[in-house]
Amino acid sequence: MSTTTQPPATERELRRGSLHRHFPAALLAACAAVVAGILLAFSSFGLVVWGLLTAASYAIVVVAVSAGVEGGRKAKDRLVTTLVYGCFVLAMLPLVSVLWTVLGYGLDRFDGYFLSVSMNGVLPSMDAGGVYHAIVGTLAITGMATLISVPIGVMTAVYLVEYARGRMKKTIMFFVDVMTGIPSIVAGLFVVALWMILFGPGVTNGAAGAISLSVLMIPVVVRSSEEMLRLVPQDLREASYALGVPKWRTITKVVLPTSAAGLTTGIMLAIARVIGETAPLILTAGTSAVAINWNLFDGQMMSLPVFIYAQVRMGGAVNYERAWAAALTLIIVVMLLFFLARMIGRLFAPKAR
Amino acid sequence: MAKRIDVSGLHVYYGDFLAVEDVSMTIEPRSVTAFIGSSGCGKSTFLRTLNRMHEVTPGARAEGKVLLDDMDIYSPDVDPVMVRSEVGMVFQKANPFPTMSIYDNVIAGARLNNKRMKKSEADDLVEESLRGANLWEEVKDRLNKPGSGLSGGQQQRLCIARATAVKPSVLLMDEPCSALDPISTLAVEDLIHKMKEDYTIVIVTHNMQQAARVSDRTAFFNLSAPGKPGKLVEMGETNKIFTRPDKQETENYITGRFG
Amino acid sequence: MTMTDAPEAGTPPRGKRRIGDTVFAGLARGSGILILVILAGVAAFLVIQAWPSLRANTANFFLETGWDPNVRENPSFGVAALAFGTVLAAAIALLLATPVAIGISLFIVFYAPRRLAAVLGYLVDLLAAIPSVVYGLWGIGFLAPQLVPVYSAAARHLGWIPLFAGPASTSARTILTAGIVLAVMVLPIITAMSRDVFHQVPQGHREAALAMGATRWEMIRLAVLPFGRSGIVGGAMLGLGRALGETMAVAMILSPSLAISWNLLQSGNQTIAAHIALQYPEATGYGVSALIAAGLVLFAITLVVNMGARYIVARGSKESR
């Protein structure tokens, strides 16, 4: 406790007891084995219980041993290290579990038939039917939402990066942020309210769904495009101006092509985000379409996410099977978009910096 | 208090790249040793191996021996954390913790080792460290203000006080004045002069006048060739290095014909 | 479309170019303004369509817990129970997700091997790519059945705490399950924000801590967490905004009832967003208008939370410069 006369420096021990480099790994393996043994002895082996008990026993032992050998500060450091690794593993559990269950249950019904027929004429409890109409609807609605959102989003980003100054710029950037936070159900309600004024109550169609998705998609496109446009070096613009090229030609011929890969990545990620949206489509495109409908402006339109929801609401075993298979279809689409987007971003990104 | 450092056969690598080759030297206690040389010659890299700070950079590793008095700091049972509380460091850019007051900045390191330090002990340690860093008179009335509100030179002296509050025996300084104006530089140089009574001080500097002013011994580092690893060219009494060095290479650098 | 015909051979280039510039700049500016118009439209149309039911409402909209607007006359409905459920579910999600998210960000930035860090970051981002309806399906089809024995054990041993009072739901379709799934969904948002600020901690501060003999955890406590506080808080609030507005996972998992209940192991709550999705197909009379009114409340809450989050993040990044 006499510390103003600190431990005389000459006597401070650099050589402190320390655990072997491989001690944590060995201990973890030992804990896993022992816990497994005990659980098996009581014949109550379960993966989750085993994982939890292993982690807990490892944490306790490593902190206790470290406190004894290495002292309190090191023990605390090891405790935090264990916790931080544990957090990551914990986060991976739902990811693996979701993908695993969707794959496991979804594969039962996931085949060429399921993908190529609609639910037209199929009673909910019949062992038949598929998602073709929902795939059509998802493509049509998401396609229209993309056609609306990309020009508006990219042009707004161009405005923010190339033209806007001062208060106007701040205002738009702020409200784009606000728009990012709109709950998807509110975007659906907005179109419901709008449609009631334009077409009267109870009108549902694909276009309404597409517009509600656009409300969600536009801010995402703006943010990612803005980021990409800012990466284009100022020199390129100046070089173009120096050749006497007007500003708008500079933007369309130099700035946008240079950032094309990044813009594409951003747009694909935005599509991936809205293609799984359900809530707004329940309100705007309806939940009961069973037939193939390519017409965005006439009648209800099914989509993959709404199909999953509608089947779950019906609640029978065969409905759940359809829901899982549709979820597998949706996840495959989303993951493809996600990885393709990242790959385009990686492969074609201009070597910035 | 102050300890001698004996380096023998030290190589420093970044991944597969050999950055500093085969350095051996002795750094005397209670003296100031200056490292000079052109930029990129490995003197800062080498300095960081003296308290194992290079290990913070991913991929960096050192081979060889560094004895602190008689203890090899690279021996496998030595804890780098303890090495760093024994061998303190001051950086090029003053880096007080922005969210902490002046008082908390000074006491931060000492608290790590001694959680239950009494208020009076802590007060004494803060005053002692700040006086040691020639800063006490300037800040004693605003110890609870954030350290980032001080001038650049004051911030650097605050960092020195923070390093000494841990009671190290060696103090490493990596171009501590390169971001300071001449008056602040003078204040830090005065401080270095005063502190060598208690510490072993090693200072990396680009400024040869500074090396001549503050150091007792000087080590000159250079690249053997562009793209090749850095090496220690020669080391000796500062007077001798600056007036009649043994190597032509050193003389070229000192007289400004090179670098 | 005007821009394609701008520079034509044989016409004086200057004047034409000016037109191209004007048109293009106008289109860009128009898009920016259109966003403001859309946002104003969202607020305006919601207010317009909510107004009839709010005027006809015979109960106090903010204090009433019941929901009976599907009539032609004298509707009676309120958001008290819904707002409570919304906040409770989001609070559970945030409480569970924030510490884990901080741990993950620390792991990716300071603990994981450099080469793996980017890949591990992608894995966390993947959590955000899974559609909410799939989370809902997973929650009701997989997670809830797993939680049934856990909940009954909790009710047995922790029943003396009002939050865990028994008997536990036999389907585990409760606010706690919904909160757990919401936590998984907001995890990547909070992680992304705190990861960003942890990356921004100046190397000088980290090295200063290490150089005075701090362990890795002490370095984080001294240099990283104080610096990153605003980012963590901002990220948590963005996550809160997301959790408040999330519809599908809650709508599918929760077995709804309109009460104000603190009990986490029994069904008894409902959130605004899920209520809208469930009630909309059956809404008649003043029903749709009343749901729009509820949506307006949700819009207002998330607006305030999101603006607060942006403000905190912006202030934090200004301070650190």
The pLDDT mean of chain B sits at 88
Q: Let me know the average pLDDT of chain A.
A: 88
Q: N-to-C terminal Cα separation of chain A, in Å?
A: 53 Å
Percentage of helical residues of chain B? 25-40%
Order of helices and strands of chain A: HHHHHHHHHHHHHH
Overall number of domains of chain A: 2
Instruction: Name the chain pair with the biggest interface and residue counts per chain.
Output: A-C, 94 and 94 residues
Structure description:
The complex is a heterotrimer of chains A (353), B (259) and C (321). Chain A has helices at residues 23-41, 47-69, 72-106, 112-116, 132-163, 166-180, 184-199, 206-231, 234-242, 247-258, 260-275, 279-284, 304-314, 317-348. Chain A is mostly helical and 353 residues long. The longest helix of chain A is centred in the first third of the chain and has 35 residues, at 72-106. The two termini of chain A are 53 Å apart. Chain B is an alpha/beta fold. The interface between A and B is medium-sized, with 18 and 29 residues. Chain A: Belongs to the binding-protein-dependent transport system permease family. CysTW subfamily. Chain A: One of its GO terms (cellular component) is plasma membrane.
How do the strands and helices of this protein lay out in sequence?
The complex is a heterotrimer of chains A (about 350), B (about 260) and C (about 325).
Chain A: H1 23-41, H2 47-69, H3 72-106, H4 112-116, H5 132-163, H6 166-180, H7 184-199, H8 206-231, H9 234-242, H10 247-258, H11 260-275, H12 279-284, H13 304-314, H14 317-348
Chain B: E1 5-14, E2 17-27, E3 32-36, H1 43-49, E4 60-68, E5 71-72, H2 80-86, E6 87-90, H3 102-113, H4 119-132, H5 136-139, H6 152-164, E7 170-174, H7 182-195, E8 200-204, H8 208-214, E9 217-223, E10 230-237, H9 238-243, H10 248-254
Parallel strand pairs in B: 3-8, 3-9, 6-7, 7-8
Antiparallel strand pairs in B: 1-2, 1-4, 4-5, 9-10
Chain C: H1 13-56, E1 67-68, E2 76-77, H2 80-111, H3 114-129, H4 132-158, H5 175-200, H6 203-211, H7 216-245, H8 248-253, H9 272-279, H10 287-319
Antiparallel strand pairs in C: 1-2
Subcellular location (chain A): Cell membrane
Membrane topology (chain A): Multi-pass membrane protein
InterPro entries (chain A): MetI-like, MetI-like_sf, Phosphate_PstA, Phosphate_transprt_permease
